[in-house]
Design goal:
The chain is mainly α and about 80 residues long. The longest helix has 23 residues, at about 55-80. Helix 1 packs parallel to helix 4, helix 2 (about 15-25) packs parallel to helix 4 and helix 3 packs antiparallel against helix 4. About 80% of the residues lie in helices and about 0% in strands. The chain has a single domain, classed as Monooxygenase.
Length: about 80
């Protein structure tokens, strides 16, 4: 539980600096759209897996991660 919680915290928090940069610059044009879409899809699948396993740590961490990635995707999709 402790290792899983630490892993969830670190992987979720890793998206915060990128979203902060996107928010400040109002740009994410230098980020790969394919990577962000693959990441969002993978995180969504982790949420489904966590739900099937009834593991609230997996569900909660990946739900927050997905929200952060969707925020980054918002800025990326606004680019021309």
């Amino acid at each position: 539980m402790l290792i899983g919680g630490a892993a969830a915290l670190l992987t979720t928090a890793s998206n915060v600096p990128q979203l902060k940069k996107c928010w400040e610059t109002r740009s994410a044009g230098d980020l790969s759209l394919k990577m962000l879409l693959a990441l969002a899809s993978g995180v969504a699948l982790w949420i489904a897996y966590g739900g099937l396993k009834a593991d609230w740590v997996i569900v909660a961490a990946n739900t927050v991660s997905l929200a952060l990635v969707l925020g980054i995707l918002y800025f990326r999709l606004r680019e021309p």
